[in-house]
Structures are given as C-alpha cells and as structure tokens.
Design brief:
Length: 153
C-alpha cells in the first residue's frame, strides 16, 4: 500500500505501524533500491517468502516442497531449488531467512486470518479450485462428422 499511496500521491489514512509495507516507488520510477534492511516479505495462502538482493527463500505449509532456496546471483530465473541438497553455507542462509520470516510474520500477522497459526478462515481461491478439480471430469472427444458444410452462394 505505501508504494501505491506514493505513486498516486494519496494521503496516509492508516498509521505506518498498522501497515507493514514499504514505499518501493523509487525502485519503479528511478530503478533505485528501496531504503531499509534489503528484505522483501510476501505471503500467498500456504506460502511465505523473503527475498534479499542475493537470496529468495520460500516456506510452505501442507504443500511440497516445504522449502525453496534460490541463489539469485547465480540463478536469476529460479530454476534450481538449493534447499533439498543445501551445503553448510546454504543451510545457514536457510536458518537465518527462516528465522527472519517467522519474526516478520509474528510481528505483522492478524491471528484471525493467519492460516499458519490456526486462523479461522481460508482464502477462497485454493478451496474453490480443489472443489472444482474433484467434481470436474474431462470431456470425451466428439466423433468427427462426415458431413461437409454446404457451399455459400
């Protein structure tokens, strides 16, 4: 929200401590990195992630792979998940980023909506998709017809 607020030049109606986002408009308009600790946090239902200039770490609940680690300097397209075969240095990175992820979400989460800690609700997207996939059946192909269309005069 702070980025949209800055780009649209809107006044702040919510105190900054209630809105944990940061203004990233300099990155969009001037290609300058945002001020601050250099970490970006994200969440989408069962996945949480933290990104630094070098690393991207993803943590999931109830979905595999449970952890993903990408070295963005060596693998900017995120093709190789390093977490399953992490070496000692990468395990330290995973431990550090996992702790930062937990710390950030414990500070900014809303218990009522926090699926990771017994929240009472769930986003509809995944639930509806699972329901659809259970009840849908593939269509069988139709037999080709031998009738040719009539020419138009």
């Amino acid at each position: 929200m702070p980025t949209l607020r800055a780009l649209l030049d809107l006044p702040a109606k919510t105190p900054a401590e209630k809105l944990p986002g940061r203004d990233l408009s300099p990155l969009l308009s001037k290609n300058e990195p945002p001020a601050g600790e250099g970490m970006l946090f994200a969440e989408f239902e069962l996945a949480r992630a933290v990104r630094t200039p070098r690393w991207k770490y993803v943590r999931r609940i109830a979905v595999e792979p449970a952890q993903e680690l990408y070295d963005l300097a060596a693998d900017p397209d995120e093709l190789t998940n390093l977490a399953p075969q992490a070496d000692d240095e990468q395990r330290k990175v995973i431990a550090f980023l996992d702790a930062r992820l937990a710390q950030w979400f414990s500070r900014h989460r809303d218990q009522q909506w926090d699926l990771w800690n017994g929240g009472g609700t769930q986003g509809r997207m995944m639930g509806d998709l699972a329901k659809y996939l259970k009840i849908s059946t593939p269509n069988s192909p139709t037999e080709p017809t031998t009738k040719q269309p009539k020419p138009q005069n």
